[in-house]
């Protein structure tokens, strides 16, 4: 079935059908739904080149990918990308990854905007007062931030999970279980997610008059090895923590190894809760002692970002809408009352 | 410094300088080197848009990314992508990921070729008689296969690691240590890398008159959980293996967990060797018992694929060159003589 046949069948002009399928705002919601249903039922898929000509869009979502010898893209990225890809495939969008020098992403942002290679971009791993967000806002290309940046003097569209609440709840549970020395093994603390998580931990502890002294705080790149080193250094000090909240499952692997090497046990000597982005290849319920987690699917976030970018490209979404997802706290065998 | 200034300084025409920088074959190697040196010394970088206009190239490398609810892109992909990005950044190339229905990648290949979105593509995870390789060969777009496909009736350019030799050497070492029951926990055995690995294991065993019976062979998606399940089922049978060769580090995590749950030890009861793609976030030397590995950096492979694709785009590389990298066998504490 082609556009002409579909239009005849629906008794609509080809222009209207095309606009409905491409999400133009001037088509009513009812017509859009009617057209979409018919297209789906009869297996009509618009030819992307024709669509591009008709809409003046590239049909591409962009991402500026920081690279360099010192930059390790971590496995979170691939799960996020899977989600983005799920949506993009169903909507004939491609993703353009523009590798950039991690010390100078600005040049690359300016280039992709100037070249009109993509219709919209997403920005990930934002930090406080993130310059990339300010730049892309100023350059006027549609964008969404995955995460949030504080300290900017304008509003912008974003999708984030509630990192502060997640780590607040996790820490509060440990405090309720009698833990007084709770440590945080965090990711890179120049990034907003890490700032928010630390804030959540501090707030939960402060509610019971407990502090988070520097000796109970680590901020490191999220590898197994760093998790191990952080846990060893925490557990070998005289005032060792009885509870650890940890920013990634991969670091938690290292924590578990450190606990074993020190001949300690989970949860007897140490209660452990880690953040789980829901990787299909590594599951917290399969840890030797099933791991309690704060859980949020980063793949689902990728899908949603793609969906919102598509809506921004077509004009269905405008303005600076922030969307914050709640995070599950999933209790498994790795936590128990504080040792006496 | 702009193109004109660079040309004046070198006493060459702008056309020659431009061609030299863009790797046209008609420029002599000496001139190319002279121009590249001067450009580097004076910080000249060609404007990508201008280059695109001049060369008729999109400046983009493509990858058709299979997606769908049942498709898990695994963390190998992100390391490969990092390597590809390292090279691409330095050469102003972008990567276009075109998500495709995993059951119908052909449509997407045809689309990206028809739309001239990219100058070249790479194909990954090839299987026997891979249809995508046959298709892209027929469509006439420059490409390189990461891995190899047997059973095609034409030659094509590829980059692969020597999977057969790697698993042959690993298995031979176990046999030399006295192991007679060696099991293989492999990846998806429709893929060439897995076929080659199995071949290497069989050949090493056969050289000592040992067979690889079906009860000592597993072929599964490479997750921690599948590694655990495979190892448990292998180790709980009456004729349990004393040695395991395993196709990924993530599956090896599961093997180690199974060994612990069964109250066995490595290497006392079981010798273990796994393939290591060199992830920065999970290192075999950090396993509770340091893990012996067959090692090859998938990030380096990504860099090399990008380099060769760039060479094919500019015409510097032509023909069906196959490149096979040797694989290191790295011995650590996880192997020992067979238990008596």
Automatic annotation (TrEMBL), chains A, B:
It holds the Pfam family LacI. Keywords: DNA-binding, Transcription, Transcription regulation. Residues 1-55 form the HTH lacI-type domain. It comes from the Bacteria. InterPro entries: HTH_LacI (IPR000843), LacI/GalR-like_sensor (IPR046335), Lambda_DNA-bd_dom_sf (IPR010982), Peripla_BP_I (IPR028082). GO terms for molecular function: DNA-binding transcription factor activity; transcription cis-regulatory region binding. This is LacI family DNA-binding transcriptional regulator. It comes from Mesorhizobium zhangyense. The lineage of its organism: Bacteria, Pseudomonadati, Pseudomonadota, Alphaproteobacteria, Hyphomicrobiales.
